[in-house]
Amino acid sequence: MDVRSQDHEGHAGLIGPTVAHADAQPQPPRESGAVVVPEFGGAVVLAAQAMATRFELVLAGLPEADLRAAGEEALDEITSLHARLSAFEPGSVVSRLNSNAAAGPMPVAGDVFALLSLCRDIWRASGGVFDPTVGPLMEAWGFRARAGETWRPPTDEALARVRTRVGMHLVELDDAARTVRYTVPDVRLDLGSVAKGWALDAAAIVLREHGVSSAFLHGGTSSVVTLGAPPGEDAWHVEVRGLPNDRARVAMRDQALGVSAGHGREVVVNGAVLGHVLDPRTGHPARGARVAAVTGPSAALADAWSTAALVAGGTPAGLPEGYAAVVV
Amino acid sequence: MSMDRRGFLVSAAGAAAGLALLPETLPAAVRPSAGPVNLAIIGCGRQGRRLGIELIDKLGEGARVAAVCDLEERLARNLAGRARDAQVFTSYKELLDKAKDVQAVIVATPTHLHKAVALDSVAAGKHVYCEAPLAHTPEECAEIARAARGASTVFAVGCEGRSNPIYQLARTFYKTDAVRDSVSVYAQDHAKTTWGRPGDWWLDPATSIGLPGEKGVQQFDVAHWYRGSYPKEVEARGSIRLHQDGREVPDTVRATLRWADGVELHYDATIANSFGGRHETFFNTNAAIKLAWTHGWMFKEPDSPQLGFEVYANRQQFHNDEGITLIADATKLAAQGKLKEGVGLPNLSHYYALNDFLAAVSTGRAPACTASEGARATMVAIRVNEAVKKGGTLTFDQAALTGV
Q1: Under CATH, to which class is A14-86+195-259 assigned?
Q2: Which fold has domain A93-191+261-327?
Q3: A179 touches chain B (CB under 8 A)
Q4: If you count Cβ atoms within 10 Å of the first and of the last residue's Cβ in chain B, which end, N or C, has fewer?
Q5: Is it the case that residue B399 has pLDDT exceeding 80?
């Protein structure tokens, strides 16, 4: 069996804003794979590696020194959240939960509890198509295998065994005590389908606190937050790759965008290419859609709901008011 | 010249090798604390938030963040929102007066405000963990250390190397023939950052103690702790290589700290380039030890004797050099087939420093870095910064260090 991997896991790099600042010479887009990032005169661009991808902040509208100081603090917030939320960092909160929460309730910080509560709410509202506990299924399907590593597709019996420890219903959240408990052993939370958006939302708060009102933030190009618009423009104009031409351009102003696609990390089983987004209802890779894009006020929600839309193969039930999905 | 840890140990160092580290004892009547320690965090900026989150995320069994304080209320509320039922204050004096259940205080204010908060906290009978650097003048360092010595509570300083498991392990090798005699020490701190705006307190000449003071203090303390002595002089210079934004505090610094036995520490700090990050390397005649806060390695000379633990050791290749990974419990990890998982620490070093402080409060033992050691490290760092400002050579006041 073949394991194909690209540079990052989770949401695929599919979007590229196309921005021309009225007062500056547009510059050729800088491309890296599927990524196009805006560059225009007066903008400050900062970046950091986190959550197995590249986060980039394009900032404008204030003196450079102010933008850099604000942007560095926003990137600090992102890297801090990576250290706390990554299931692959042994010291993270999520790793500690995965190791210990089956033994008894574990208290967590208010923001972590809020994120887990958000996951629970989206899991419920989406009828279970969004589920941050599919990690064991990812392993069973070989999406965590290293490139070239020998791997066999799971049998039905093996999948059935794995599925006994998959499901957000196995994660007990005590709102009063602010604790987390797994009701069976070996549950594995993996917040990869929501954490990038959560981090971008947090970074946007930091930027706003510093008075930044014109910014384009993205994580791996699949999660985006915009603040205001580029100076002299009415909105950030973003192109979502993989969507039909008439629906590929999105005008964003104080909006977020999440894009999910099955490609980016794939396995080949009997000649069929299977994407890495799992359908928690069946335990198999989702085949309902190629690309799903969701816009709305919060990047965390847009992220999570884009995964739900991809799994559902269309606009998912329960998509909150203020959010819109395009699924192909 | 073979004066190093062997010579130091044999001769008891003293004046010949520079000022020996003074024995640290707490006053006899430190009161152990039972159960989780109720903590207050004073100063909720970047560093206070970093410490507070670590306490809330990972150290909940040993500590409860009961109160937070910052002049800027939104910063205090931001951190309070992550804790459970933490009281919010904008005046630390009011916190000390009203938050009666608080047993210990984390001081994470701007450096030049440490003294007032630390002294008032000690006077209020609180255990104190004060961020490094301890203060922004030698006199204030000495004053805080004096107050801490006279108190019956724990006073720890956040010089994080001393509680870092890898640094502790490496030091046991450093103190043996595994590495033999000291040749030199190199410490670098490279980052690409603005480090804030010219108006920020750490870039304000009136309050700044520069890169050596704010950041280098951690690395100088590691060198003091390993070498068991303090340097006698420093030659330094600095310049602005990148940030031409009106600041006067250099963004790039080079310093050479010399010990009485001729060993030199070469310090290289910049915020204009990030290559290599932050690490310290001790070059000795049998091996070099490289320490990078979450990771550590020993690079042995081909003619040095084999060490017992090498059988189990995990190794990493660095161009032409092979490093033996330094990690606690390597033998145990090897037996469990988990050695590769143990190539680095799972937590950043401030986790271990806070954990050490909580253990000291709970047991009444001395913390890994006492007020006196933190004061000495800070006094050295301040002097290095003065040499940078002068662009020349300065000596260290051994009497002042001895007197702390």
Answers
A1: alpha beta
A2: T-fold (3.10.520)
A3: no
A4: N
A5: yes
